[in-house]
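Lab notebook page, bench 4
Experiment: in silico fold of construct C2
Operator: M.H.
Input chain length: 221 residues
Purpose: comparison with the prior construct
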Amino acid sequence: MRANRLSTAGLGIALGFALLAGAARAQTAAPTRDDIVGKLNHFEEAAEVDLPALKQQVMERAKARIKNDPGPVNRPPIAPDLAKLPAFNAQIQFDADTPIIQPASYQTVGRIADAMVHSSLLPYTFLIVGHVESNSKTREANAILSQRRADAIRDVLVNTFKISTKRLHPIGLGEEQFLDRAKPTSAVNGQLQILTYAKLPEEAHPAAAPAPAAKKPAKKR
């Protein structure tokens, strides 16, 4: 009887580990193209964001020594209008403190590229938004790192997957717009976002192939 109880307990422990392992795999599984398209294809209107000015504001705020800084939890988002845009949050793994993408995340970047060339998303441009969780580094260093990581994703999408550079706008927000303000040190805040930003001008859309000209009937002799 005791042996049976021990074997049952051992089976329960093994099952528990199996469930945990399965959950871990589910969390790290790359999203499908359709998952990403579903998140990004609900565009309604462009956000009124001046990207060059926003980049400058991020760096100025990250460098500032504000006497009464409210701290990470209460720090207001620097570009709240971005929250109105369709978003896909990607769990991209980088080497520590670098913009080097780890091989385990290549598949996710490829799926993002697949989504961008889906017929429903071809008319749009996208923001690639880098974030960083609050850590021991300075806000300025984190702002720079988030921009470099956004640039790295843009470069892979352009150079490897041939997405037009005109459709991609990388911007790093560092610690200036947490994804989870209540938990500034959470790994969630290190996720990278893809946002549907604006419609391409009509002339920039891929041109449809012209229909073949109709042949004139041959003249009877």
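Observations: Strands lie at 87-90, 124-131, 168-174, 192-199. The first helix runs from residue 2 to 28.
Next step: discuss at group meeting.
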